[in-house]
Structure formats: structure tokens, C-alpha cells
Amino acid sequence: AAFSLVGVVIVMIGGYALWGALEGAGIEKSRALQYSIVIMSVLGLVFCYLCIIPIDEKRYSATGPAQIGMRDSLKLTFENRPFIPYLVGTICLWFGLNVVSESATYYVTVLLGKPETFASIVFAFVFGVALVFFPIINIFSRIIGKKMIMILSLAVFAVCAVLIYYLGSESLILSPINQAFIIFGVMG
Q1: d(CA 84, CA 63)
Q2: pLDDT (average), residues 2-20
Q3: pLDDT at residue number 121
Q4: What is the DSSP string of 33-63?
């Protein structure tokens, strides 16, 4: 989870920062975005290979062909009743996270009226909060259980997702920037 968070931080903060830097160097906006995507993709590929190249797979795992077909495997998976709610919750969580992160430019440019590069500041705040809460969540998961943490986290995320609808409007008391930092901070 920690390395996943670091990877997301590099892409979500570094990507926007790189985009802004390329624009600042005089490259046209859409071309700067394209270059940023290519650079981040190549960087991601390099880091993926850095993780797998040093591992001697034959030394650490015994591989063999699957003893069960795809259809039977799916049937066994969906017969596992306790797994279904976990699967649905996990799919919903990742779907929501991806919708929010992929819409960041829209939130920043349209709802907040800021330049695209401001998204890196918002994401730095989100991931900073997430980093601070990593150990806190671990402590609370031992006290109240991982299931309850997952349920509470999804509920908080759902409330924040609804509040994004109102982001930048006068329906919320604070200024749009403060709204964004509070909503995204709580999401973090």
C-alpha cells in the first residue's frame, strides 16, 4: 500500500507539475500534456521493471499449469459468499477513486477556476493527509476491525463524493478553495 501510494503521488503530483513545467518552457498546452503522459508512462514502465528484474522467480515460487478451468474458477469464486460483499465494495472503492482522480483537472479548472497545475497542489494535500493517516488507520483497524474501517471509509468517501457535486458553489459555506481542501483532505 505504501509503494502504491508513492507511485500515485509521483504520477498525480509530478505529472501535473511536469505538465506545468513543459508549458512554462514554451510548449503548447496539449503537446505539453502529451509529453507529460509519455514521460510518466516510460518512468512507470522503468520502475515496474526495476521491481521485477532482480527477483529470481524460479527460486521463490513453484509454478505449474492450473488444475481448474476459468469457468470453474469463477464459479468457485462466486460461491464464496463472504467474498462477494468484499469484491463489490472493493470494485466500488476503486471505481470511485478513479472517477475522482481522473476528474481532477475538471474540478480544478472548471469548478475552482484555477490552472491545471493547481491539481498537483490539491493532490499533494490529499496524499499528505493519506500518508499521515496510514498509521492511524492501522491502529484503529486493530481496535475496531478491518471490516468496520472499510465500511466507515466507504461511507466517508461516499459523503465526500456527494459534496464534490457542490464544489465551487455557494451551497457550501466556505470559499471554493477551502471547500476543495476540506473535501479532498477528508477523502485522503
Answers
A1: 28
A2: 79
A3: 83
A4: HHHHHHHHHHHHHHHHHHHHTT--HHHH---
